[in-house]
Amino acid sequence: MTLIGRTRARGVETLTLDAPHHRNALSAALVGELADALTDAGEDTGVRAVLLTHTGTTFSAGADLRDPPAPHALVGLLRQLVELPKPVVARITGHVRAGGIGLVAACDITVASHAATFAFTEVRIGVVPAVISLPLLPRTDPRALARYYLTGERLDTAEAARIGLLTAAGDDVDEVLAPVLDGLRRAAPEALAETKRLLTARVLETFDRDAADLTALSARLFASAHAREGMTAFLERRDPRWVV
């Protein structure tokens, strides 16, 4: 079963997360298929930009707890989004949780409808938003991130835009996107690639410096007793034992 839809219109390659029955959770299979689609788009001279979107009411629920990707695979996917020589635009019309926010943060331009919500739910299941911090920490407000990392509270689109997670939001996401995609289509491909390189340099420095340590932290916490309890509680739709 294909987990990533691919269509193209006027130089924009649309990659669609298409596992709505699993809330587009980041399984090992979905991460691998998305990485392959990004590789193809990056090498195709007919692609001017990539639009990353989704089916269903959830953009991505984060890591698939039944079939999670290896931490290094998720790091590789996030870095690929940042390094891709084509701009990547996220189109979001649903909920985004945990690791799914890492995908959003790794994109160059992020646009959402007001129906979208965001939450860093890792601490509530006994893990840490380690790997997704690689694109998030250089691009978002640190004081706000401290609050939402530590509490798992939900953010609406206005707050997500205020802290730097979203570029723009509106009632009609495609209306907001129209001038963005028009601008990318009017830009020279080499100029786009070099401008993106300029904009992502600081993010890639974070990957170079911290990826190994954060990958190890993620692996250690996912194997912990707290994580086992938190994930079991989530799947059983109950509070973990530590809730007071």
TrEMBL record:
The keyword Lyase applies. Keywords: Lyase. Its EC number is 4.2.1.17. The keyword Lyase applies. It comes from the Bacteria. InterPro entries: ClpP/crotonase-like_dom_sf, Enoyl-CoA_hydra/iso, Enoyl-CoA_hydra_C, Enoyl-CoA_Hydratase/Isomerase. GO terms for molecular function: enoyl-CoA hydratase activity. Pfam families: ECH_1. Transmembrane segments: none annotated. SUPFAM superfamilies: ClpP/crotonase. Belongs to the enoyl-CoA hydratase/isomerase family. This is Enoyl-CoA hydratase.
